[in-house]
Amino acid sequence: MGKKKEKESSEPYGKAAQFDPLFSGPIKNRSCTDIICCALFLVFILGYIIVGILAWLYGDPREVIYPRNTTGFYCGIGENQEKPFLFYFDVLKCTSLTSILAASMNGLQCPTTQTCVKECPTRFWLPDPASFVPGAKLNKFFDQNFCDPTIDLATTSLTASQVLSKELCPRYRLPMAPLFNRCFPSFTELYPSNFTLGGGNSNQTQELVKGATEDLLGGINAKEIGVKIFEDFTKSWYWIIIGLVIAMLLSILFLVLLRFFAGILIWIIIVGLIVVIAYGIWHTYWEYSRLDKEGATIADIGLTINLSAYGNVKETWLAIFIILIVLEVIFLLLLIFLRKRIRIAIALIGEASKAIAHIMSSLAYPLCTFVLLVICVAYWALTALYLATSGEPLYRVIALNTSAPNCDTISGNESCAPTAFNASDYDCQTTSCIFYKYNSEGLFQRNLFNLQIYNVVGFLWCMNFVIALGQCCLAGAFASYYWAFKKPQDIPYFPVTSSFFRALRYHTGSLAFGALILTIIQIIRIVLEYLDHKLKNVHNPVTKFLMCCLKCCFWCLEKFIKFLNRNAYIMIAIYGKNFCVSAKNAFKLLMRNVVRVVVLDKITDLLLFFGKLLVVGGVGVLAFFFFTGRIRIPDPNFRTPELNYYWLPILTLVVGSYMIAHGFFSVYNMCVDTLFLCFLEDLERNDGSANKPYYMPKSLMKILNKKNKPNKQEAK
């Protein structure tokens, strides 16, 4: 018993992998794994589809895209197709609005007549006193385009006072700009001295109007900026596409060059890092010596919030000097004692380049992942939009002018139908039927919040599943490369396609299981972020400390689960075991070689970071010089377009280049991780004999001082 316990304690991470004469790469004869989770995932997806169908049946995104007028009809479609903008007769009554998007989703409640117009008013206007003369033709003084469509100014018998009292026409107009298809005051022009509202002067009127709309416009002309941005994209879209193509070519070129210069590049980066730290040591010592001669000490400045002051005392530079020396010593010691493992990492990185060269279709797989992710995002966004606009609109009878005779009896609680509403049925002459809110009654409407949560969970689960599918697919393809004894003759045909369908057919449940674990952690992080946002005004140091600790712990947990899932998917792709067994085997294998794992991971991260920096920086600098006109091209067809914001295409190219580089380099990173796990398994399974030869490349055998012994027939 004692010997058995001692043996178990000496192998805390399990026994080394044993030789299997039948093993020669990803197992083809496998069975379905994690069937329960697969069934759960399929049921969940079915429910997700049902939620989308219900949202499509009950929702109406036109509530967000198109505004409604007072009669309940949409502006910009149907009978108002040529009238896309909503015009408020008295915008001062809409001061309760704070967000046009939130208002359009929760009910745009503004107690004034709203009508659809072809274009927003562009000039100041007040009624002409002559229009109030009895018998005056109102069509000569009022603009029919901005009046209620139920009144015909040419034939009406109403007086100007009655028209204004019933809000059949606006009592004033001012320059407006469309924002989200609604007309809001524009403050680009000075108010005329004769344009006054509310009994004040023109300046007071302007402040009154500005106070009612400043939260919406934020002091900027949103239309002008939007138009300029659109113009810039129309002028530069083809140059942006060219830049993205250049980023793709640079990414591929970098991966190709790694096959030949990975070792040189890594050693240059390592030596460069050591040289930079050495320069920092010299510079900090020089600063310390200079300040020591001047006699500047920390006692002279004491404690201060001016951090720049600490740069003028010798103690600061002495501390930095000591820290840099410690870092330099640590790096040198690591370089000396881990040089063999660094060489192994370099050899694996070079082998990854060869694997990608033999399986070029792997570079196209990120496009498949991108398409699937776009579908997930689009489905989530559309479902959220349709859910947010679910429910029939409700209308209430209100008095546009509560001070008018007999209007004090209008409580605003009476429901109405705008298409059948007749104001003459009421004693109050300024009654109107306006939109109140969306109906929240009924089983579906009462559970909209729960359905939105279901939508978010479905979105995260599907996103993580798509990423897991891509990792498992690539892992299977690259594993088939490593375990091909004679390369490239023994590499199977269409390895990426075979691995993709193998993962879908047998391991949907395992991939969904890993994705579910990650989704749960991400949901917890979202809840913590929400609570942190709600508690940001709470001045309780204990609460803030606990919240910070929880956020940090779950951030670390998410990173660890992503790392574990990634390696579990590799083991699933190779051996076809379920998720838990694969995760356990991968974790134990990595822990048995933990130093190699750390070295390879950090070197790969450093190399790929340098590659991303090269691609993004190169494209960004090229775009900057081109769009700022610093690159002179004599051909007029290739001249720099004149833009309002030259930084817009530059920023677009930088973000797009990063996404392209990340997509290509993620394939490379997956290849390195897969080959590394296969390499560790190869070391444990085989010994280089004729019956158990190594599958690793000769470069790795040379580093490890290993070689395959020829069999007897070859020896003869």
UniProtKB/TrEMBL annotation:
Instruction: Spell out the subcellular localization from the entry.
Output: Apical cell membrane; Cell membrane; Membrane
Q: Carries keyword Cell membrane?
A: yes
Transmembrane stretches, start-end? 35-58, 237-257, 264-282, 317-338, 359-382, 458-485, 506-528, 569-587, 607-627, 647-668
Supply one GO CC term from the record. Answer: apical plasma membrane
Q: How does it sit in the membrane?
A: Multi-pass membrane protein
Example GO biological process term? choline transport
Pfam families named in the record: Choline_transpo
The UniProt keywords, alphabetically, are: Antiport, Cell membrane, Glycoprotein, Membrane, Transmembrane, Transmembrane helix, Transport
Q: Describe the reaction catalysed, as an equation.
A: choline(out) + n H(+)(in) = choline(in) + n H(+)(out); thiamine diphosphate(out) = thiamine diphosphate(in)
Which Gene Ontology MF annotations are present? Answer: antiporter activity; thiamine pyrophosphate transmembrane transporter activity
Please classify the protein's predominant subcellular localization into one broad category.
membrane
Q: InterPro entries from the entry?
A: Choline_transptr-like
The role this protein plays is: Choline transporter.
> Which family does the similarity line name?
Belongs to the CTL (choline transporter-like) family.
Q: What is this protein called?
A: Choline transporter-like protein
Q: Identify the species of origin.
A: Callorhinchus milii (Ghost shark)
List the taxonomic lineage. Answer: Eukaryota, Metazoa, Chordata, Craniata, Vertebrata
